[in-house]
Write a structure and sequence with these properties.
The chain is an all-alpha fold. It has six helices and no strands. It has helices at 4-27, 29-56, 63-82, 84-112, 117-139, 141-167. Helix 1 (4-27) packs across helix 2 and helix 5 packs across helix 6. The longest helix has 29 residues, at 84-112.
């Protein structure tokens, strides 16, 4: 069981780290993006190596698929390191396509799923927002990347503040051991 002091300390430390990370995302979006891309590349290569080794050692149900996916992950990780700009742009375009498609689906769903009144209005608003974000990110990708990093930074700062506040509230109770 965790003591109250340890709970407060953990909450304050994680909250402060979130606030610092959020501040860096806002103040230095280029450096933040480069770091995220670097971490993505490292993660994908490590993931690929683990899958490859597991497949070669017969530690998975489908050895062939593990080896194939492992090799592809390693190749993708290398591509991330060689072309980090193209990687960040590709990620943004995937996000833009998702926003555009989900926006269209939200609007269609508002009229096809029997929603009425307020539900329909909110689905249309959310759909229009998704379409607008998708279009803006396709037309202005650099601004889109910076905007995403700023939003992530704001989110982390708010989350960090709430985490610190939550730390000074009662820690979660744990069931008594039988």
């Amino acid at each position: 069981m965790q003591s109250r002091g340890a709970y407060i300390a953990l909450s304050v430390i994680t909250g402060l780290l979130m606030i610092i990370l959020g501040g860096l995302f806002i103040a230095k979006p280029g450096l933040s993006l480069a770091t995220i891309i670097l971490l993505l590349g490292i993660f994908v290569i490590v993931y690929g190596v683990v899958l490859l080794v597991a497949g070669l050692m017969g530690r998975t149900e489908s050895r062939g698929w593990s080896v194939a996916v492992g090799v592809l992950a390693i190749i993708f990780g290398i591509v991330v390191f060689v072309w980090p700009g193209a990687t960040s742009l590709a990620i943004l375009y995937v996000f833009a396509a998702w926003a555009l498609i989900s926006g269209i689906a939200d609007i269609a769903g508002a009229f096809m799923s029997g929603h009425s009144g307020g539900q329909r209005v909110w689905l249309v608003i959310i759909g229009l927002l998704g379409i607008a974000i998708g279009i803006v990110f396709f037309v202005h990708p650099v601004s889109g990347i910076v905007a995403l990093l700023w939003l992530a930074g704001i989110y982390l700062i708010v989350l960090g503040v709430f985490r610190i506040i939550a730390g000074f509230m009662s820690p979660p109770s744990t069931p008594a051991a039988a």
